[in-house]
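Q: What structure does this chain adopt?
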Amino acid sequence: MKQREPRRKVMLSARLRQEVGWSDANILNVSSRGLLLHGTIRPARGSYLEVRRGSYVIVGRVIWVEANRFGVRTQESLAIDALISSAPVAVAAKGAGPPFVERRARPRSEGLEWRYARSRERGRSVQFAMIAATGLLLALFVFETAGEVLAAPLTEVTEKLAVAG
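A:
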């Protein structure tokens, strides 16, 4: 019987991508060609998945499944010490729930400030245009009303000056 390669017991948090999407998982032990994982979503035996811990990415195939634990054979040999020392970046999510591991080198929200600024600028421009249009309409209304109010006395004055002259 072929002897198993030695495993190293660990307890590492990681992110797991399967066909159904991303979920949290824990790496329970590591060997140079495999992992023992514990996750909330049970993968199908024979399916491929991606495990991320910090910037470390592991692609492998599920060899066995038992309850919420499953064994994964990796496509490439693992550098166990690098995987263990690769600390995940915990990012607190808005609202309830545990922090998750950021899998991007630069968070997605980092590049959105210019979009928010441009949106605010457009909103201010629209607001200014609406206030200016309202002011113009109000000025025209006041001008017309003043013209109508003053038209009768001015007409009377003009008529009396024409008679007197």
